[in-house]
Fold this sequence. Notes:
Elements: E1 4-11, E2 21-28, E3 33-37, H1 44-51, E4 59-64, E5 67-68, H2 75-81, E6 82-85, H3 98-108, H4 113-126, H5 142-154, E7 160-164, H6 172-187, E8 191-196, H7 199-202, E9 207-212, E10 215-220, H8 228-233, H9 240-250, H10 262-271
Helix pairs in contact: 3-4, 3-5, 4-5, 5-6
Residues 44-45, 164-165 line the site of magnesium ion (MG).
Amino acid sequence: MAFVEFDKVNFSYREGEKNAVSDLSFSLEKGDFVALVGHNGSGKSTIAKLMNGLLVPTSGKVTVDGMSTENEASLFDIRKHIGVVFQNPDNQMVATIIEDDIAFGPENLGLPSEKIRERVDWALSSVGMLEYKKGTPFRLSGGQKQRIAIAGILAIRPDVLVLDESTAMLDPEGRREVMKVVSELNALGMAVVMITHFMEEAALAKRIIVLNEGRIIFDGGREIFAHAEELNAAGIELPVCTSVAARLKKMGYDISEQIVLPEELAEALCRL
Ligand code: ADP
Ligand code: MG
């Protein structure tokens, strides 16, 4: 059995209302790096909440490490495995001193105070914010606050880190900071589910799952970038460099349709 498994999951927020997600089946393993993309309202946040048991399926089943999210007695354990960082860091801060904020999760796990201190330091240094330990979160930039929010979840040491549009409010620099941290954590073996509507970010993942109207319409690798029309139909904008490459291809140039990053486009253009 996979570490996280969605088996034919349907969910609607109210009885009789149309499903927010439909017929979802996919699985994740420890160490995976998956991007979950889709337009607004396509069901991304619903999936994040189904994964840590904040919501339970209307039908079908979600299991984490063999435990069903339907089983309330397992929720505490499930949330140790699945850490979710939401979009707005201001709603995720609970204390006025950064180290207290980060300690909140490990304290709830009932860890001894020495272990808590260790985890706080580890989590803060993982996101490059150790020097701010004694400070207050309120004066930080958006990127810094979001890194603190990530540290708060890291301190729980989840096996899976879910970032629900956690970079959406950041400027490009802040976004790069967070993405760098996330890639490093993945390299250390933490699974990452990155929810985003930036296809450039999605391209960093080994696997890309595309949602439309609550259904998975694609689950695979970078070959998705060659499907411009389907992506556009699903309300997803292609990265600029991908569109340029696609147009050149249409004009008859021999260029890959899987170009995403500026460096890749530059290289292809030089070759042409
Ligand atoms: P995304 O994160 O991709 O923008 P969501 O998972 O938030 O999408 O929403 C999926 C669908 O569920 C949308 O149609 C949205 O309007 C609906 N929805 C989301 N949250 C709620 C809620 N709390 N109550 C009722 N409907 C909701
Ligand atoms: Mg959302």
